[in-house]
Amino acid sequence: MANPSLLILPGDGIGPEVMAQVKRIIDWFGEKRDLAFDVSEDLVGGAAYDKHGVPLSDETMAKAQEVDAVLLGAVGGPAYDNLDFSVKPERGLLRLRKEMDLYANLRPAQCFDALADFSSLKKDIVSGLDIMIVRELTSGVYFGEPRGIHTEDNMRVGVNTQRYTEAEIERGARSAFELAMKRNKKLCSMEKANVMESGILWRDVVTEVSADYPEVELSHMYADNGAMQLVRAPKQFDVIYTDNLFGDILSDCAAMLTGSLGMLPSASLGQPMANGRPKAMYEPVHGSAPDITGQGKANPIACILSFAMALRYSFDEGAEADRLEAAIEKVLADGARTGDLMGPEGGTPLSTVEMGDVILAALDDSL
Ligand code: IPM
Ligand code: MG
């Protein structure tokens, strides 16, 4: 059988730096675990704009549709801030999500023991934290029509539309319930049913779907209260299911709880392809970090953990994903730190490449 295929889109800023470490990890699995991938690489975001004048070319889009999984680094940067909205780097990312129909965005927020002190919250509130946010990724206000800026009575008006069909709410809900079944069987759905009709529909549909998952304890929460509860007592949650915009905000909030945005991966999953694997893209939750770009000090762990999610969700290699995650936990427990993880006690931070080195060494030790 042919090797599974990966399309790597390093993107902008620190994207290429952290992705370089992921490529070493991919090679390691090929050499040491007989798990070889056919890897190709292409441009997205500002990097694609510089070459093609668009943040994602049609050729790259077509490739993304064909591979077994896409790994993305990060997009955006100050050089592109003033571009027309239609060609901004973020549009490349949104096009991938929309055209691949990646409706279920899995954003785990996990607090690594070794890093509990880095959270802005008290240690006992976050230590052991392990929650999963499932964000609907292909609809809602990000894509709803009508949208735009027009003029009415000499006054500019900005319009975006929050729109959800029941089918869109339902398929994401099923992904969230399935995940809850594999975890602690608790699902909290978040919307604003107190002010939005789309929220009322959301609550109804999630409740209907819950009939198929009687073992899962379902609760509903207004998203603003959800934000508050996330910082008050995050360990009350297991899986959270929410819409595209609330999910964007709540997942940043959850990410910060864990102490470092540089640590968090994500998976964006769609319908199964002919080979049974879901359409999939994996990316770190962090951005392109222009402030530290090119300095070799970015933390590659979120991007590496995104590859671990690919092993788990695209390639059914849960044991190998565990191996990679355990290697990362081990190096952190041993004190390996990139600059973003330096505490007040100081010390010499590892470079991006050095962090890759120690993770590869820990993988070797795992054999
Ligand atoms: C994210 C990001 C994106 C989003 C941006 C870069 C378009 O914030 O993945 O959370 O808003 O979805
Ligand atoms: Mg975001």
Write the layout of secondary structure elements.
Layout: E1 5-11, H1 15-32, E2 38-41, H2 46-52, H3 58-66, E3 69-74, H4 89-99, E4 104-110, H5 123-126, E5 130-136, E6 148-152, E7 155-159, H6 166-182, E8 186-191, H7 197-210, E9 217-222, H8 223-232, E10 239-242, H9 244-257, E11 265-272, E12 278-284, H10 301-313, H11 318-333, H12 352-365
Parallel strand pairs: 1-2, 1-3, 3-12, 5-10, 8-9, 8-10
Antiparallel strand pairs: 4-5, 4-11, 6-7, 11-12
Helix pairs in contact: 1-10, 1-12, 6-7, 8-9, 10-11, 11-12
Radius of gyration from CA coordinates: 20 Å
Q: Please state how the strands of the largest beta sheet are arranged side by side.
A: 2-1-3-12-11-4-5-10-8-9
CATH class division of the largest domain: Alpha Beta
The secondary-structure element order is EHEHHEHEHEEEHEHEHEHEEHHH
Largest sheet, in brief, is:
10 strands, mixed
Unique bound compounds: 3-isopropylmalic acid, magnesium ion
Helix-strand category: alpha/beta
Through-space gap between termini: 25 Å
Query: Rough shape?
Result: globular
Helix content: 40-55%
Q: Into how many domains do the coordinates divide?
A: 2
Amount of beta strand: 15-25%
Number of helices in the DSSP assignment: 12
Q: Which segments are poorly predicted (pLDDT under 50) over 5 or more consecutive residues?
A: none
* Residue-averaged pLDDT: 96
CATH A-level architecture of the largest domain: 3-Layer(aba) Sandwich
What is the CATH third-level topology name of the largest domain?
A: Isopropylmalate Dehydrogenase
Total E-strand runs = 12
